[in-house]
Design brief:
Layout lengths: L1 H14 L9 E3 L14 E3 L8 E6 L2 E6 L2 E3 L5 H17 L16 H6 L12 H19 L12 E4 L2 E4 L13 E7 L6 E7 L1
Parallel strand pairs: 1-5
Antiparallel strand pairs: 2-3, 3-4, 6-7, 8-9
């Protein structure tokens, strides 16, 4: 009863907040090689007032794209995490489903943002996956110290989606043998009406 009351109170706080259901962030990657910045591009991160926005000149006109978060070229992994990802971690601990994904053309920095650098052990080189895992367990320890009656269960899966094929990366495989795609069993989950996917290697 205490646990149910605790979760209900926490959910009411989240549902009564102004937290958006979908949040869009744009990260600008540093230029490299012979790349040139788009002439006339105006970047407003929102720190000086107003909403974060990109003004892009196209064919004599200027298109303005307003987003929830805008990170300039010098933004760190930590800036992205605290601005975009950490609120989702917090809401997940309140019992809500959350998802973070990177979208962009080849070479735009998706892998760097999500996975971080594999050639450096510096803390600032860690990607959003590593930062999320560290924050998740830190916040679980904090909540357990405040509410000993609350239990947490963490499950992890690692999947690769390539050419519309799903692969379970946690299953051992023979490098000399082609891996088979995972089978998908899709069904509805009663938790907040969200669908879930169960994977089993075939």
């Amino acid at each position: 009863a205490k646990l149910g009351k605790f979760i209900s109170q926490r959910r009411n706080l989240v549902e009564g907040s102004v937290m958006p259901k979908i949040s869009v962030g744009v990260r600008l990657r540093p230029l490299d090689g012979n790349a040139e910045r788009i002439p006339g591009l105006v970047v407003n991160t929102g720190k000086g007032g107003g909403k974060p926005a990109l003004s892009v000149p196209v064919g004599g006109t200027t298109n303005e794209f307003i987003v929830d978060h805008l990170f300039h070229e010098q933004s760190s992994q930590g800036d992205v995490f605290h601005g975009c990802v950490e609120p989702i971690v917090d809401s997940a601990l309140e019992g809500f489903n959350g998802c973070v994904f990177a979208y962009g053309q080849t070479g735009s920095g998706k892998t760097h943002t999500i996975a971080g650098s594999t050639s450096s052990m510096r803390p600032e080189a860690r990607g959003q996956t590593s930062l999320t895992a560290a924050a998740l367990f830190r916040k679980i320890r904090e909540q357990c110290s405040l509410k000993p009656e609350v239990d947490f269960s963490v499950r992890v899966s690692a999947l690769e989606i390539y050419n519309e094929t799903l692969l379970d990366l946690l299953v051992d495989f023979d490098p000399g043998v082609e891996r088979n795609a995972s089978t998908i069993d899709r069904r509805d989950n009663n938790t907040h009406g969200a669908p879930s996917i169960a994977f089993g290697s075939s």
